[in-house]
Amino acid sequence: MSKLTKKIGVFRLVVSGVVFLFVIILGYFYTGYLFPYSYNQAEADVATSSDEVVFVAPVLDKEAYDLKLWQIANATTSKPVPEVASSTASTTPKVPSLWPVKTVYPNVGAILPGKRIIAYYGNLYSTKMGVLGEYPEAEMFRRLDEEIKKWEEADPNTPVQPALDYIAVTAQGSAGEDGMYRFRMPDTEIEKVLAMAERKKAIVILEVQPGLSPIQKEIEALEPYLKLPQVHLAIDPEFCMKDGRKPGIYIGSVSGSEVNTAINYLSRIVKENNLPPKVLIVHRFTQRMVTNALTIKPTAEVQVVMDMDGWGHQARKLNTYQQFIYSEPVQFTGFKLFYKNDYKEENSRIMTPAEVLKIKPQPLFIQYQ
Question: CA–CA separation, 42 vs 47, rounded Å?
């Protein structure tokens, strides 16, 4: 064999080795193995599918929800004890309890009854309408934090949801250009409250005092804000006037039908914008303020709070709650506390969280003015 032939043979051997090494390296990058073992496609498919993220829609824990409702209705943290049939039991029919209310379950993301809303109420243009406008932002939040701490200590089983309750439509003593005896806050003022609430991780409640204007018209004017997930709604029937009477002289009213119109309107907004449930607050301290209250129907998208809005001596406030909130159950309840008006009557003072928590059902919305 010539030297040339030997050299060609060695060259071919080297080339073959390089090609073989290249195939091994290529196989490693393709299969993940250093050596060309057989690649099990079935096992790969299983591994791939097991790593996939499958979205599972959250569901409401109805058992926990019902338990919380029962505890709120009975002002307790215990669990209900099942009744045991007894041959010696009384034959007297048991009077059914008004609370908890049997109504629709909310969609996932509802605030109530898992949290208690503690709200500061007012208007930025006025130092007399409530603490929200009475103090500078830092001082207002300092005071709100103090109240929140008191509620957390009084009821550690119910977390607090801070809120700014802003009067976005205020009743007026003068007719105004359109004769409606109400003033709509400018967008700039509403946006100031939204920014304040965001800094505190608070929700915003837009309060409506429509004067002579139709209540639904005033609500619809706030739709751009009601489309936001953190914004909720309150109706003040005291200033919902009928028959052309001026607000502030007579106490106004809304009907159950008007409240249902607002509920259905909010429900549509929630559905169309894929929002968590809204809270609708309706204030009340007389029978006439809300007519046909028992016809009010909460939905899965809207939770309804009937708020005791009266001021004065503790005994009078509790009586108002019993007469106009407890006796006509809708869904949830609220209780208003006045820093000034609750001291106007002799021996009167503002109630403490511990005192309010003795009420049955326990209010889940607390508004400070």
Answer: 9
Taking domain 62-75+99-368, whether its CATH number is 3.30.70 is answered by: no
Looking at residue 224, what is its pLDDT? 98
Spatial separation of the C-alpha atoms in residues 209 and 236, rounded to whole Å: 6
Query: Which tokens in the block code for residue 195?
Result: 């920014």
How far apart (Å, rounded) are the C-alpha atoms in residues 341 and 356? 17
Q: How far apart are CA 60 and CA 288, in angstroms?
A: 36
Q: Which amino acid is located at 171 in the chain?
A: A
What span, in angstroms and rounded, lies between the C-alpha atoms of 328 and 282?
13
Question: So where are the chain's domains?
Answer: 1-37, 62-75+99-368
Tell me how far apart the terminal alpha carbons of the chain are, to the nearest angstrom.
110
Residues with Cβ < 8 Å from 159, sequence gap 6 or more?
114, 115, 116, 152
Distance (Å, whole) CA 164 – CA 194: 9
* CA-wise closest residue to 175 among 211, 149, 226: 211
**pLDDT tens digits, 162-190:** 999 999 999 999 999 999 999 999 999 99
What mean pLDDT is predicted for residues 90-110? Answer: 83
What confidence tens digit (pLDDT) does each residue in 4-48 have?
A: 444 445 455 444 554 444 444 444 333 333 323 232 333 334 334
For the chain, give the mean pLDDT: 87
Question: What distances in angstroms separate CA 151 from CA 154, 159, 223, 266, 356, one per listed residue?
Answer: 5, 9, 32, 29, 10
Binned at pLDDT 50, 70 and 90, residue 242 comes out as confident
In angstroms, the CA 19 to CA 13 distance is: 10
Whether pLDDT at 108 is above 60: yes
Question: Checking phi first, is residue 334 left (phi over 0); if not, alpha (psi -120 to 50) or beta?
Answer: beta
CA–CA distance, 144 with 142 (Å, rounded to integer): 5
Instruction: Please give the model's pTM, rounded to 2 decimal places.
Output: 0.83
